[in-house]
Amino acid sequence: MKYLNLCDKYRAWLEEKGDTPEGVGWTQPNQAPIRYKVMLEVIKKYPTSILDFGCGTAALLDYIKILGVRDIVYYGIDILPESISIATKKHPEAKIVCADIIRNDELLQGCPAEYAIINGLFTYKYNSSFEEMWEFLQVIMGKLFHHASKGLAINLMSKAVDWERDDLFHMPVGTITDFITKNLTRHYVIRHDYKLYEYTIYLYK
After folding, report:
1. Which of 20, 117, 119, 185 has the greatest number of C-beta atoms within 10 Å?
2. Sheet strands (E) in 58-135
3. What are the mean pLDDT values of the chain's consecutive 10-residue runs (205 residues total)?
4. With a threshold of 0.85, does the pTM exceed it?
5. Which has the closest alpha carbon to 128: 120, 140, 137?
6. CA 25, 151, 111, 100: dihedral to nearest 10 degrees?
7. Cα(50)–Cα(27) distance, integer angstroms
């Protein structure tokens, strides 16, 4: 399946750059904490639990620990065993698993989170077409929103930019909100206020 091509690219980044923001394709490392902060603001009440989907090396959990937040139960899922190996060595107390939920989503049941977080997975498309990424996005959002008991946060590349990169997945706001309202929920918030060329959507049950 075409989304597996993305895995090869993320593997190459990890091999070249290691456990860093550049190792997951972020070209400006100083922007990573901004994204983590915005992702966590989907949470309305603590204590809580989150499923970090496409967690990579669990950098979001690194950030949570730096903040000193102790009332979040963290679950992580990623398709790359190389990323999972790094993540579990750093955080042996957390449940972080290797899984392809397109092919088999049974492992989701072992991660009973209140919120699902999808940070960065749908910003880069590599050599996939818009249509292929759009189909992939709909499947993943559907699975994770129905799995999470309270809500979901996802970031996407904005089309309100000076120019678009061919390898990035720029998603029209109207397209994604039409899908959300027709298939998932009418309770959502769009965040386009944090100075990056992207936006984040919070979906609530």
Report:
1. 117
2. 72-78, 95-98, 115-118
3. 81 92 86 96 97 97 96 97 97 96 92 97 91 95 98 96 91 98 98 95 97
4. yes
5. 137
6. -40
7. 26
